[in-house]
Design goal:
With about 180 residues, the chain is mainly beta. It is built from 1 helix and 10 strands, in the order E-E-E-E-E-E-E-E-E-E-H. The strands form 2 sheets. It has a 5-stranded antiparallel β-sheet with strand order 4-5-1-7-8, with no helix packed on it. The longest helix has 7 residues.
């Protein structure tokens, strides 16, 4: 089982229940709040790179309860990772073949990129296993970025693929386009 930029799976079960965590430092007292969000999109077998079947973000959850936000922050205030999304991939219906997870910055006060926000970090874990830890510096000029892709293989097991790809989109547009293109 390899980690990082390699596909991850166990020959018996694949990736099951995953937690995606996000952190960032709050804005200085004299600046507007910086609001980041974790976003997940799901794709069916019939349209693995088409429009998402549904989108999960800070004020929603999947219809079946398999993907939801367990912690949300609008400011980044708190210790460590202040936002968390749980994905129970092993409970997703067999009609789903792909889930893409990303991070977007709200663009309420003009364009903000990851370079404008200090101490950004994303962590993807399955139990105690760290699948991904990244500071998004490689997409520092982007307003949003995908971070992970989960794909169901022929046996029905889910695999993980690191997918750091920057976008110049607000959260709404990002959710529509984040999973449309295959990994280069």
């Amino acid at each position: 089982m390899e980690r990082g930029s390699q596909r991850v799976s166990s020959e018996r079960r694949g990736v099951g229940k995953v937690s995606v965590r996000l952190k960032w430092d709050p804005s200085p007292w004299n600046e507007s709040q910086q609001h980041l969000d974790i976003i997940a999109t799901t794709y069916s077998k019939a349209a693995a790179y088409g429009p998402p079947v549904y989108v999960v973000h800070f004020d929603s959850r999947s219809p079946d309860g398999t993907i939801n936000m367990s912690r949300h922050s609008r400011t980044g205030q708190g210790f460590g990772y202040v936002e968390e999304m749980t994905l129970e991939l092993d409970r997703l219906a067999s009609s789903f073949t792909r889930v893409v997870v990303g991070v977007a910055i709200h663009q309420n006060d003009g364009r903000k990129a990851f370079a404008n926000i200090s101490n950004v970090g994303v962590l993807v874990v399955e139990g105690y296993d760290e699948l991904l830890k990244d500071d998004l510096s490689q997409v520092s000029e982007s307003c949003a970025a995908t971070v992970a892709e989960f794909v169901r293989d022929a046996s029905g097991a889910w695999t993980f693929q690191q997918m750091i790809r920057g976008f110049d989109s607000d959260p709404v547009l990002f959710a529509a386009e984040m999973g449309r293109f295959p990994q280069p």
